[in-house]
Amino acid sequence: MAKLTMAQRKALPKSSFLVPSKAPGPGSFPVPDKAHMRNALAVAHGAHGAPKRPSVAAKAASKLRGAGGKPAGKGK
After folding, report:
1. Element containing residue 8 per DSSP (H, E)
2. pTM here?
3. pLDDT digits (tens, 9 = 90+) for 18-75
4. Contact 45, 57 (CB under 8 A)
5. From CA 30, how far away is CA 15, in angstroms rounded?
């Protein structure tokens, strides 16, 4: 996964974040590509797979499906 610099993060449109109301601040989950979408989904689910942040997990899974990817643990 490519690392985002603060300047790159600030330049992203709000639509590139899972929580646009917080963008580009902490907790907004930037998802400019599939790798970031998968990472946001993993963070939202936590280490044991139980959704810690269901709304973030749902948005990440939705964006990932829309980008032609499969959410983690689905479609094996």
Report:
1. helix 6-11
2. 0.58
3. 788 888 888 788 888 888 888 877 777 775 566 667 777 778 778 778 777 666 554 4
4. yes
5. 9
The DSSP line for 9-76 is: HHHS-GGGBSSGGGTTSTTS-B-SSHHHHHHHHHHHH-TTSS-SSHHHHHHHHHHHHHTT---TTS--
Torsion of CA 30, 36, 41, 45, to 10 degrees: -90
Cα separation of 52 and 27, whole Å? Answer: 13
Burial of 44 (0-12, 13-18, 19+ CB in 10 A): buried
Q: Which of 10, 4, 67 is nearest to 41 (CA)?
A: 67
Residue corresponding to tokens 């590509």: 33
Distance CA 21, CA 39 (A): 20
